[in-house]
Amino acid sequence: METKQLDRVVIRFAGDSGDGMQLTGTEFAKAAAEAGNDISTFPDFPAEIRAPAGSLFGVSGFQLHFSSSEIYTPGDAPDVLVAMNPAALKTNLKDLVDNGTLIVNTGAFIEANLKKAGYQTNPVEDGSLGKYKVHAIDISQLTTSALEGSELSTKEKGRAKNFFALGLVFWMYGREPETEIRRIYQQFAKKPEFGEANVKVFKAGYHYGETAEVFQTVYKVPPATFQPGPYRNITGNEAIALGLVVGAELAGKKLFYSGYPITPASSILHSLAKYKNFGTLTFQAEDEIAAMGAAIGAAYGGSIAVTASSGPGIALKGEAIGLAVMTELPVVIINVQRGGPSTGLPTKTEQSDLFQAIYGRNGESPIPVIAAKSPGDTFYCAIEAVKIATRYMCPVMLLSDGYIANGSEPWPLPNLTTLPRFDVIHRTDPTSYFVYERDPRTLSRAWVIPGTPGLEHRIGGIEKDALTGNISYAPENHEKQTKVRAEKINRVAQDIGELDLSGGESGDVLVIGWGGTYGALRQAQQAVAAQGHKVSHAHLRWLSPLEPGLAKIIHNFKHVIVAELNMGQLRTVIRAQFLVDAVGLNKIQGQPFKVSEVVAAIHKQLEAAPMAQASSSQPTVNA
Amino acid sequence: MSDAVKIKLSKKDLESDQDVRWCPGCGDYAILATVQRTLAQLSIKRENTVFVSGIGCSSRFPYYMNTYGFHTIHGRAPTIASGLKITRPELDVWVITGDGDGLSIGGNHMVHVLRRNMDLKIILFNNQIYGLTKGQYSPTSALGTRAASTPNGSVDHPLNPISLALGSGATFVARAADTDAKLMAKILEEAYRHKGAVFIEMLQNCPVFNDGVWEGVKDDPAGKQIILQEGKPLLFANGTKGIKLGAGLVPEICDASDPGVLVHTERGSALYANLLAQLVQPDFPMPMGVLYRHDKPTYDQLAIAQVDDAIAKHGKGNLEKLMYSGMVWEVGADGTRH
Questions:
Q1: What pLDDT sits at residue B2?
Q2: Through-space distance between the first and last CA atoms of chain A, rounded to whole angstroms
Q3: Which of the 8 DSSP states describes residue A438?
Q4: Closest Cα of chain B to A315: distance in Å?
């Protein structure tokens, strides 16, 4: 037996949506993180909970990238593919690298399944897999054998087969099985007979690797080097929930969260519903509009009010978001984006709700928009969204996406004592109070809450006098209020940090991105820069207002590429704002960018003629 | 709600400085005046009182109350009021809505806010018409209503607001006419003291687009209304006629002396309350007063009890501990995991 050291491995588990591939992947990711590797994960599953067994559209996958050095993405292409049935093989094989390792569960390669996957002949036997290192193992049969004598039904036994695969890869990569065995017992504490069976099968998979002598090599990926400190593994939706709790604490207020079930945002509600001892109130509303309305009501009452959804739900909330704009109440609205339009691709990622976030309401109704770049970053974005919403008295849209929400990474735990507080103060002094009197720096109105004697007042969605807040249809007053609402959002720029820029402030190519594409863009830029090219990457955190740091550098490059998982929404904004002839790198497949795609796009621009320069002045003519 | 030190208030103290902008002769004036007078008599704390409304003529109501007020968007007042009440249970939250706002565009919210027994006092101004949009038929308009949008008469059947409220789970259901200040004041007072979801149907006249739609009830209170009184038989027509149940539980008008005349109780079965809801014009006199009342835990009580429970069981939340939950490891000075 040979032990081979590798710097990094990308492994993908694929099977039926009922095969437990998400669990297998998550557990193996934990083991990699526990062994000190840097990790990045990409769960990719269908919208159907239990799609018909063996069907192509029912295939569920989980990709894990683990490494002994710092990584930014779940990897472009898997080095190892575990295919639990023919459909999983069919849909995933094209991604496997040449000479990659392929583990197939031959037990599922029966005629009916082959037919469902569209195979005329069995690919395991017809020689079509010649360019891969194939390990054909009857995992189904080995699982049943391992559970001989068990009281479980045949069907229940069959469900444990993912643990065989897990045991096998544990052995292949020299992972410590004891911790996993403990974790399985814990996870199935309420159904010990299943826990027992799963551990048996897990051990069988592990020992199979050891004794069957089909694997000549055991791989070792040494631990990565990290900044010292405490770490935990975290997904985007877990981190966002923590960020909201911490954000409310830093504001010195109670958190109220309302939501309506929607993929991929629901798990934020699940997390927060467990944090009741922090005083957090969660409310599952009857619909998306009610969730937004309840958040506005809670904000009016003085809570840190948050609601989350995905694109279709945000569309429903639109009118109520406008009410929060008009009444100038702080609400954080989270959009965990998915593919659209309409129901679109509920479980796949996309960045196509940027226009909706910036413009998606009736009337002139600007709001600040912030986008998280990674699972761990959602924590800080949530805090920042709470801070800006309460400081500027406005709704703030926080954009995440399916890729960030479900993906996980090792996350350096923040030192809570170093996070700056932004305690909210409600006005209680009734002397010369005017409802729409504004703070000179932020232009925000005072947050006066019901229960305060002497400050009784009325607010609403009708245009209001710029000082008293009384209903006003006066023409000049409306223009004044419209402009001040816009100016207030522009002033958020004064509280925005430095631009996240990698590379020089001038050069040949500037790649601009936002949100969950961060890892692929940063890695691509660094790779091309390492070849000696003058390429930079600016990753925007704030999209409304646009980060001031971008204005300073955008005209210093021969080419500007705006890379995003949509048809070019940020590119349109950038072109309008800066009059630069930016080109788009766009992908609308429900899948994240591969590093190689970004590298190719940068090289293409490096070889292209410089873009035309235009004046950046934006004259406005007033009536 | 109750306070050791009673504050002396007059109706004037509850009037805001805003000019009232309803049409002359609108039933809303009478309702506003009675609400202001009654709440003054109840010595409410103005700062702890919030009026939340949707969109429509009736929804301008909060602007005229010298309390906290929130004029929201069409149909959504119950949602905003819910968020406020859950987070600030000590406030008295009133919701002002209409038949279009509360039963059409906001019908879903109405159902759910009542189902949850949210501690809100909901007053629905039912004038069977959309007024602010200039006279379209509403979900309570009678079949055949000729309106701007239905020149040949509407072809939808109306819904019964009281049945909807009962079916949804409201725990205090009442009805009054805009002009009956005495009964309205009595209902408002009891609604104010009720803990839970209150639904009051206010029969309100729109003099511009649907004038006299309730005249069949209001012009002859003795003949066409049953003034509900706890423990008293369902009588009308100056006590000469009553309501009893015939075969198949079909309500029938009978002589007051009939031994089968039903006796009213606010705490009767849902079946009885639903029977009352079915007594509508023109076939029956309409029951006025408190139709149904029931005590059960409110949403905010239950939700806050869960928070208190969690704190009692697990202690007050510790952020440091929360952050460090799950799989946590330490990376040492050498940059590798320990």
A1: 47
A2: 82
A3: B
A4: 16
Order across the sheet with A542-544: list the strands.
A281-284, A255-259, A304-309, A331-337, A395-401, A369-371, A542-544
Phi then psi for residue B96, to 5 deg, are -110, 125
Q: Does a cis peptide bond (omega within 30 degrees of 0) precede residue B259?
A: no
Model confidence at A494: pLDDT above 90: yes
The reply to whether B30 falls in a domain is: yes
Give the nearest partner residue to A458 out of B16, B303, B330, using CB atoms. Answer: B16
- Judge whether B191 lies within some domain: yes
- Does residue B154 form part of some domain? yes
The position carrying tokens 């809670």 is: A298
- Whether domain A500-607 has CATH 3.40.50.920: yes
Inter-residue contact A180 to A202 (CB < 8 Å): yes
Q: What are the tens digits of pLDDT across the range A287-298?
A: 999 999 999 999
Beta bridge partners of A67: A8, A38
Helix segments in A35-160, DSSP class H? 86-92, 111-116, 139-146, 154-158
Query: For chain B, what is the domain count?
Result: 1
d(CA A220, CA A222) in angstroms, rounded, equals 6
Q: What is the pTM of this model?
A: 0.94
On the question of a common fold for A2-220 and A500-607, the answer reads: no
Give CA separation, A590 vs A516, A594, B141, in Å.
12, 12, 48
Backbone φ and ψ for A5, nearest 5 degrees, come out as -90, 135
Q: Which residue in B86, B301, B324 has the most chain A C-beta atoms within 10 A of its own C-beta, making it the best mutation to test that interface?
A: B86
Determine, yes or no, domain membership for B277: no
Half-sphere exposure of B211 (CA within 13 A, CB side): 6
Instruction: Please report, for chain A, the start and end positions of each structural domain, with discontinuous segments joined by +.
Output: 2-220, 232-418, 500-607
Three-state DSSP class for residue B235: strand
pLDDT tens-place string over residues B67-95 = 999 999 999 999 999 999 999 999 999 99
Range of the domain at B85: 11-213
- CATH number assigned to the domain with residue range A2-220, chosen from the 4 options 3.40.1190.20, 2.60.40.3080, 3.40.50.920, 3.40.920.10: 3.40.920.10
Using the beta-carbon criterion (under 8 Å), do A458 and B108 form an inter-chain contact? no
Does domain A232-418 fall under CATH 3.90.105.10? My reply is no
Of A540, A421, A527, the residue nearest A76 (C-alpha): A527
- Distance from the A300 Cα atom to the nearest Cα atom in chain B, whole angstroms: 7
